């Protein structure tokens, strides 16, 4: 996931030259050794390779959300398997 400072409409993906489109997604956001998930984030996504880009203001807001993660009220749990120890 990369941060961009300009609107990307019509810009090609930096990795594969695919077309990017704006979507609203649930994204994992890594900040200072922890990860939070944030719903309804506007993200530019390459239709070819899936690379994600954030506008600079969106990225800043995600950082602010992560800084205040103690205020997050909704918790989600999910099953987690360990690939290294899973049977074939």
Describe it.
This protein is mainly β. The chain has one domain: Ubiquitin-like (UB roll) (Roll), CATH 3.10.20. It is built from one helix and four strands. The protein has one helix at 56-67, and strands at residues 2-4, 20-31, 34-46, 52-55. The chain has a four-stranded mixed β-sheet with strand order 1-4-3-2, with helices on one face. The model has no long low-confidence stretch (mean pLDDT 89).
Give a quick rundown of the structure:
This protein is mainly β. 14% of the residues lie in helices and 36% in strands. The protein contains 1 helix and 4 strands.
Mean pLDDT: 89
CATH fold topology: Ubiquitin-like (UB roll)
The helix-and-strand class reads mainly beta
Order of helices and strands: EEEEH
List the helices and strands and how they pair.
Layout: E1 2-4, E2 20-31, E3 34-46, E4 52-55, H1 56-67
Parallel strand pairs: 1-4
Antiparallel strand pairs: 2-3, 3-4
């Amino acid at each position: 996931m990369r941060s961009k400072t300009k609107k990307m409409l019509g810009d090609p993906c930096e990795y594969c030259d695919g077309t990017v489109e704006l979507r609203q997604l649930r994204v994992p956001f890594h900040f200072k050794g922890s990860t939070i998930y944030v719903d309804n984030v506007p993200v530019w996504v390459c239709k070819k390779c899936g690379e994600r880009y954030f506008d600079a203001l969106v990225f800043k807001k995600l950082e602010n959300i992560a800084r205040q993660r103690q205020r997050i009220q909704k918790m989600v749990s999910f099953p987690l398997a360990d690939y290294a120890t899973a049977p074939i």
